[in-house]
User: Which sequence fits this backbone?
């Protein structure tokens, strides 16, 4: 046999023999311990059969198969996934076309998308992907608000992208918070609780900073810019997430965070973000 | 060492030139995490800085150092010019290009994903391409090392390959195995997504592939330190190496036992079954064998030297050693840090105990102690040993060099011991800012401040190190003796072919890898996909009207 002449397979050579025997022995010990003994022992309940033990050690648990009992229908928070197809659809939105769609919005969302009521959010300056997602959520019944569900159902995905593009390009509404922490109006080092929550979060309660998704530290796709938004609107959305009234946040991020906030914190955060930023007041 | 002298020196300068700013960054990161006021206290800057610190220290400094050391060893230990020096220069240019690309992208704020990538986080394609060029380019070095060893064996049939060359070739082969994981992750997952050729990222497959790299890379870093312990330290003590065979076995065991073990970095990950986690945890423990063999061999070699120098009694040989030699001092300090860090590592690799410290500062403290401490202090000693041979000028001051080593040792202990304790108290890693007004965080404040002080000591030590090297480099030229490697007590006349090459051990490693990683990787294609949309750290907003 030709293979016997290659060094790793010259088994009469003592080092080759030692190498292979020790490797095989160590693997056998580890495999028996890991797959037979460890797989068999369960933390809760009696030891399982050898076959099930091996499967569980492989990471295949029996409940991966088809469910024997009827399961409650799967509830997804949104139909939107940030695939390239979705992003391309949003990118194709035309702001000019959107002007016509946007005429339907002014009654509630204000002239040019700047809201004058705490019930309705300011849309001007909001990320196009955010508006597109919310419209689809209203259309699909993933988020509920009176007239919005009907309005969204009347819009095609193309029209949603158009109106999203229109509002996204308006410059007189929402703005991204700058990098300066002191924009809350306090000197550095004397941050208010709202500024701390916004920029540092609260690690001990597992609350990430708002800035990690809503900017400026990072902008998570689908998370709106907040600076300049109506304070009453922000506060009510936080309360709605906390109570599970609003459930269209992917991965339950906002529901988890908002349920950790106290009512006082919700209010102070809403006021922090609604506060005017230099020469750019939220209201006109 | 005429031919590859400039090559090796240039590699060392790249490594140490980048090392200093990366140490300063590390100290700033420590300061930012502390209750003390820090300049530029922005979380986004912190993550960019951690990415830069990790990328420079883990990929650039270490790879350049090992490559330079390898070229120097190939020429001095084989006693003939380096073969493939043109390829080596091409390799240098590719690696430098990659490093510049990666560093520039991080500095531009487009790659704050940390050096371990963490998919589905997605950085700019330039970062991934840069890292790919650096690591992929270093494979040329792997080939050059193997070509030199095999060529020498062919020209000297029956003679044992010099130990230093044997060991650096083991290091090169280990690096090729280790790099396979990260290179596959880059080619198959991250680069296609960064260019937009694919839609989703299989985060779990990416983490699994990276785990192939993540533990073996640590041994790639450590190997130059072990090479120095076996081939340079006995010479520096004025003694001999206790056993050539034990040294060869050590490097063989490091090669075979340090790759099929990376899954112990994923013990808390849901995508793998407990069986493979246990298997790899078990194999990880075998690394204890070459470590203990090394401690025995090195102590025995040192004892031979100490007794030769007049040391008497059970431990009298220890003070008799020439502690004013940087190589001797560094080795002693290294063994202390290796001991402390090694015991910590046993906790990390244990399947059950890992859950206590997973993702806490304990882990960060551990790898700083064992890599930043035990390994890097040997890099300093190697530099002090090699500099006179590479520049033809004597070391400017051995006393300053020893001071530097002591500073590094104490700095590292002061930094990492409180850091370990903070981790045990539950301080999470990869967190930029802590709110010290919270009771949970407040009790760690004093520990973190002590770590900051240690960090400043480390900065001082790093500055001193570069100063010693620059002063030596600019000093007056004078001839120094050539680099000599330690002789064994019984110098080998011939060694079994299995201990004179890596064919057998690479084959055994292949089998181990197939058993340990075959199913864990295949399952992603057979059973389940973990593909998720990417989180682009470079993205600010797709259509932000306010910009």
Assistant:
């Amino acid at each position: 046999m030709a293979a016997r002449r290659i060094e790793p397979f010259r088994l009469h050579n003592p080092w080759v023999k030692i190498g292979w025997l020790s490797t095989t022995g160590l693997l056998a010990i580890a495999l028996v311990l890991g797959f037979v003994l460890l797989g068999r022992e369960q933390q809760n309940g009696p030891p399982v059969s050898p076959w099930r033990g091996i499967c569980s050690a492989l990471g295949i648990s029996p409940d991966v198969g088809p469910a024997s009992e009827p399961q409650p229908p799967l509830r997804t928070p949104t139909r939107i996934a940030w695939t390239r197809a979705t992003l391309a659809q949003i990118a194709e939105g035309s702001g000019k076309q959107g002007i016509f769609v946007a005429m339907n919005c002014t009654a509630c969302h204000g002239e040019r998308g700047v809201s004058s009521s705490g019930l309705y959010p300011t849309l001007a300056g909001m990320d196009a992907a955010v508006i597109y997602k919310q419209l689809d959520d209203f259309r699909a019944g993933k988020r509920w608000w009176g007239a919005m569900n009907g309005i969204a159902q009347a819009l095609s995905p193309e029209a949603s992208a158009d109106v999203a593009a229109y509002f996204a390009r308006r410059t007189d509404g929402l703005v991204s918070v700058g990098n300066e922490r002191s924009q809350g109006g306090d000197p550095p080092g004397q941050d208010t609780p709202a500024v701390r929550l916004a920029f540092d979060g609260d690690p001990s309660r597992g609350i990430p900073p708002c800035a990690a998704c809503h900017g400026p530290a990072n902008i998570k796709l689908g998370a709106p810019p907040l600076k300049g938004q109506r304070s009453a609107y922000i506060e009510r959305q936080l309360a709605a997430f906390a109570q599970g009234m609003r459930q269209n946040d992917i991965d339950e991020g906002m529901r988890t965070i908002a349920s950790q906030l106290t009512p006082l914190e919700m209010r102070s955060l809403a006021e922090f973000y609604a506060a005017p930023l230099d020469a750019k007041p939220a209201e006109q | 060492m005429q031919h590859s002298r400039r090559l090796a020196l240039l590699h060392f300068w790249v490594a140490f030139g980048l090392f200093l700013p990366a140490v300063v960054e590390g100290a700033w990161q420590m300061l930012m995490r502390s209750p003390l006021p820090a300049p530029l206290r922005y979380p986004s800057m912190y993550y960019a800085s951690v990415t830069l610190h990790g990328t420079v220290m883990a990929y650039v400094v270490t790879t350049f150092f090992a490559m330079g050391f390898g070229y120097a060893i190939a020429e001095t230990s084989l006693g003939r010019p380096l073969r493939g020096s043109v390829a080596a220069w091409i390799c240098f240019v590719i690696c430098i290009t990659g490093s510049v690309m990666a560093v520039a992208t991080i500095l531009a704020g487009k790659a704050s994903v940390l050096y371990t990538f963490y998919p589905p986080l997605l950085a700019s394609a330039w970062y991934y391409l840069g890292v790919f060029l650096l690591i992929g380019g270093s494979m040329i070095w792997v080939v050059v090392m193997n070509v030199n060893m095999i060529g020498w064996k062919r020209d000297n049939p029956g003679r044992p390959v010099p130990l230093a060359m044997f060991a650096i070739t083991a290091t090169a082969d280990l690096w090729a195995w280790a790099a396979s994981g990260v290179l596959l992750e880059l080619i198959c997952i991250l680069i296609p997504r960064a260019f937009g050729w694919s839609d989703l990222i299989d985060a779990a497959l990416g983490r699994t592939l990276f785990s192939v790299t993540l533990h073996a890379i640590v041994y790639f870093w450590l190997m130059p330190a072990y090479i120095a312990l076996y081939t340079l330290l006995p010479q520096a003590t004025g003694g001999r190496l206790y056993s050539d065979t034990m040294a060869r076995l050590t490097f063989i065991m490091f090669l075979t036992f340090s790759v099929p073990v990376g899954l112990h970095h994923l013990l808390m990950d849901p995508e793998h079954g407990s069986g493979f986690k246990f298997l790899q945890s078990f194999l990880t423990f075998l690394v204890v064998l070459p470590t203990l063999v090394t401690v025995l061999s090195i102590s025995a070699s040192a004892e031979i030297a100490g007794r030769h120098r007049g040391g008497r009694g059970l431990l009298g040989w220890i003070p008799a050693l020439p502690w004013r030699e940087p190589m001797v001092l560094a080795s002693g300090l290294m063994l202390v840090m290796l001991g402390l860090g090694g015991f910590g590592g046993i906790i990390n690799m244990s399947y059950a105990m890992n859950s206590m410290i997973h993702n806490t500062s304990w882990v960060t403290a551990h790898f700083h102690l064992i890599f930043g401490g035990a390994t890097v202090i040997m890099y300093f000693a190697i530099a002090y040993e090699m500099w006179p041979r590479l520049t033809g000028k004597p070391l400017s001051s051995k006393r300053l060099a020893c001071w530097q080593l002591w500073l590094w040792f104490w700095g590292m202990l002061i930094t990492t011991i409180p850091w370990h304790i903070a981790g045990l108290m539950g301080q999470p890693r990869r967190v930029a800012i802590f709110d010290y007004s919270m009771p949970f965080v407040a009790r760690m404040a004093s520990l973190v401040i002590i770590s900051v002080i240690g960090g400043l000591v480390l900065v001082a030590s790093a500055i001193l190190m570069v100063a010693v090297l620059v002063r030596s480099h600019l000093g007056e030229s004078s001839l120094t003796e050539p680099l000599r490697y330690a002789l064994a007590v019984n110098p080998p006349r011939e060694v079994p072919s299995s201990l004179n090459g890596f064919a057998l051990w690479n084959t055994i490693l292949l089998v181990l890898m197939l058993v340990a990683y075959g199913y864990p990787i295949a399952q992603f294609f057979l059973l389940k996909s973990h593909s998720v949309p990417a989180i682009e750290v470079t993205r600010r907003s797709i259509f932000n009207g306010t910009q």
About this structure: Residues 14-40 of chain A form the longest helix (27 residues). Chain A has three domains: 2-51, 84-168, 181-274.
